[in-house]
Automatic annotation (TrEMBL):
<protein>
    <recommendedName>
        <fullName>Pectinesterase inhibitor domain-containing protein</fullName>
    </recommendedName>
</protein>
<dbReference type="GO" id="GO:0004857">
    <property type="term" value="F:enzyme inhibitor activity"/>
</dbReference>
<feature type="compositionally biased region" description="Pro residues">
    <location>
        <begin position="36"/>
        <end position="60"/>
    </location>
</feature>
<keyword id="KW-0732">Signal</keyword>
<dbReference type="InterPro" id="IPR035513">
    <property type="entry name" value="Invertase/methylesterase_inhib"/>
</dbReference>
<dbReference type="Pfam" id="PF04043">
    <property type="entry name" value="PMEI"/>
</dbReference>
<feature type="domain" description="Pectinesterase inhibitor">
    <location>
        <begin position="60"/>
        <end position="208"/>
    </location>
</feature>
<dbReference type="InterPro" id="IPR051955">
    <property type="entry name" value="PME_Inhibitor"/>
</dbReference>
<dbReference type="InterPro" id="IPR006501">
    <property type="entry name" value="Pectinesterase_inhib_dom"/>
</dbReference>
<feature type="region of interest" description="Disordered">
    <location>
        <begin position="36"/>
        <end position="82"/>
    </location>
</feature>
Amino acid sequence: MVLIRQTLILIFIFAPFFFFFISCVEAASALDLAPTPTPTPSPTPTPTPTPSSTPSPTPTPSSSISEPPSPGPSPEGSTSLKLGLSDIGIQNKALKASQIEGSKLARKQLQAIEQRIDEFKAILTKRLADPKTSGKTQQCLAQCEDNFEDAIDSVKMSIESINKQDLPKANVDVSAISTDVDTCNDCFKEMIGEDKQIKTFDNWIRGVTGDCLENLQKH
C-alpha cells in the first residue's frame, strides 16, 4: 500500500514535466513540416537613357547651282548628244526662290544653254559633212547652223539685258532663243519629215527657256 502511494506521488510530480516535453516535441515537428517562404526578387530598375549632349548637325541649304556636266569625248564620227532636263542642273525643283534671286538663276541657265548649243552645232557640222547625207537634209542642216548662230546671239543679248536689269527685253530675248531653234526643227518637218535628234534638242530648249522665263518673273 505504501509502494502504491509513493508511485502515485511520483506520477503527480513528474506528469507536468512529461506533458511539457511532449508539447515541445510536437511544436518542433510542426516547425520542420511548415514550408519555407521563398523571398520575392525585387525588380531591377531599368536605366533611363540620357539624351546625347552633342546636337545633330542641321543641314544647310546649298546656295550654289551646279554647273552643267561636260560630256565625255565622243567616239570619232559620233553624231549623238544625250540630252535631259535633269542633267544640266537647272531644273532642280528643290531650289527655292528664296535661296537665289530669279535673275541670277536665269543667267546661269542661259550660260548652260549657250554651252549646249555650241555642242549641238558640232554634231550638225559632222552630219553636214557626211557624204551619205541627202541634199534636202544638208539644206536643213545648213539652215540650222544659221538658226543656232542666231540663238547664241539671243542668249548673249538675254544675259546683257539681265545685267542691265532690263527684264522686259530679257523676256523677249529669251523667247527668241526658242524661236530660233524651232525654225530649225520646222525645216525638217516641212521638207523631209521629223528629225528625232533635232526634235529632242528643240524640246530641251523649250523646257529650259520656259524655266528661265519663270525665274525672271521671280526677280
